[in-house]
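ugh ok so i messed up the first submission bc i forgot one of the chains. this is the corrected input, ALL of the components this time, i swear. 696 residues overall. if the numbers dont match what u have on ur side tell me asap before i send this to the collaborators (the ones from the other lab, u know who)
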Amino acid sequence: MSKRPTSPAELLSLAEGGAAGDRRALARLLSFVERGGAPARELSRLTYPRSGDCYTIGLTGAPGSGKSTLTAGLIGEALRETGSPVAVLAIDPSSPLSGGAILGDRVRMQEHALDHNVYIRSMATRGHLGGLAAAVPDAVRVLDSAGWPLVFVETVGVGQVEVEVAATCDTIVVVLNPGWGDAVQANKAGLLEVADVLVINKADRPGVRETKRDLVHMLQLTGEMSWMPPIVETVASSGEGTGALWQAISAHRAHLESDDGLARRRRARMADEMERLTADNYSHLVAAALGRLAPGDVGLVGTVASETVDAGRDLVERLSRREIDPPAAADELVALVARLALRPEASS
Amino acid sequence: MSKRPTSPAELLSLAEGGAAGDRRALARLLSFVERGGAPARELSRLTYPRSGDCYTIGLTGAPGSGKSTLTAGLIGEALRETGSPVAVLAIDPSSPLSGGAILGDRVRMQEHALDHNVYIRSMATRGHLGGLAAAVPDAVRVLDSAGWPLVFVETVGVGQVEVEVAATCDTIVVVLNPGWGDAVQANKAGLLEVADVLVINKADRPGVRETKRDLVHMLQLTGEMSWMPPIVETVASSGEGTGALWQAISAHRAHLESDDGLARRRRARMADEMERLTADNYSHLVAAALGRLAPGDVGLVGTVASETVDAGRDLVERLSRREIDPPAAADELVALVARLALRPEASS
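and heres the new structure output, hopefully the right one now
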């Protein structure tokens, strides 16, 4: 991965390469998304008008629940049923200390790795300030504008970030295993709230009936829903139930597309993305006002008047002397940054 | 935990109770910090001028590394050596799916639970928007203003949040176990960068020498340091090395206090806190502009003109029609929110 600056012309040429089927170009584009910064923003500008056709399916659930094997099976179903190419983004937001697992899991998808209709890519967060949940829609648009009509987004783990990543997708599949605890835990983690399709994988093990009963009970408690998430039983390792899962996903997609459900959902996701992007933007402005902007990010904010930096530093000094309290100082800093955002040269 | 609104007078009376040694009052105050929102801000205003004397020691490291047992031992050392009371904040930022461990670990501290010179409290994030790293300094100030001069902040896990939580403290202790991988992983997680004292716990197991050699090597690579983190070997379960660890912590504290190191460190932490607080503040303004503010948060932002909400919604519509791209829309939204922040009634 080269560190030299990338020109918009170079990005455009890579995007054209990606659309023409050049996988090295595609891989480089996704690395730009991963790394964030100015090239990622430029790429977002480039791909946005050329995207909007791709359907995304998110898969989330606890590590070891069998998501990768299930995804491998779903790739096969999708290829067979639609005849269209399929891409997979395997997202690993876990801390470096628990990393490594994802590459092992990828092995299960290797059967598809040489298929020219399948593209599999692992992604981790690095420079992207808004984190993975902010990077995923950008990555999907890179694939979308390169002509991939269907993208599976698989996450590792069940934290807040994973729920957020899954929630950027059109259809959200939550994978559980038999056993009383799993359904309750998924509910606590906010997974049932976002689920469109529920899977009990490893359904050849004891406890399926109890898990199903718990799920039905908890879904009933959430009140009226325009779509009641179906519960599909699978044994991913043998392929059992994978076809039924694909049918359930397709039924949810048909439901969304039958009225303006898909458009409405995508509008809400767009607003989510705006919240994340502006948080990024804002954090750069705050760092600038506090005189803490990393040299590489100066270009994103432009020249900041020394008066602003002086005012920001003065605020921290007054705090240290306890002449002002943190909430009041935060209000002052917000006003300072607002003036910074509104100066004429701020628009990028 | 009551849901009724809390008046500043009630908070003041609780704060006075906490300072007079009323533990129920202290517990309620910390619950307000945990829950966030307007009462937490009010409490921050209240405690800030009355705090600044408390010294904080952060302990972080992988689950199972023996942090809780070590903390229990350090409580004993601190009580013996300083004669002053000691408080512990046990922070659990993990997802609900891995929760539960912390209460088990707390059992190891039970020997101190009935000591009136010791206060132990578990904290998880709930409403606090800036997350745990934002809540911890507020929680420390509650204890500080109630007269606790020494607070241990123990985290579970080794993710980014845990590193951030530890980095709010005056002395940062990183706990490792023998074995080649641990030191490398800690380095990857950014733990060595923030460590003031390194502990190899369970030092009765094989691999201590190798871990120590790896640590020394990695510390040398980080270049010149005004303080070289000592490496202390402990067997927390038997108490071996706990005294040496307390001495190492005290030496670091003396080093910080020998010149303006402590003041400089606290100024940097204050700027960190400002970044987190303003991000909170800003996210409320963005939600308001997008017409998505939760009813409970309306008070934090004040009345938002319907023109602003219309403009925010219009932005999402234009995005959905692909008339504007996400980075450009983010710039527009930042400007919209900046005007919102600068309106006369915005200051709270």
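quick check: The radius of gyration of chain A is 22 Å. that seems consistent at least. Chain A touches chain B through 66 residues (CB under 8 Å).
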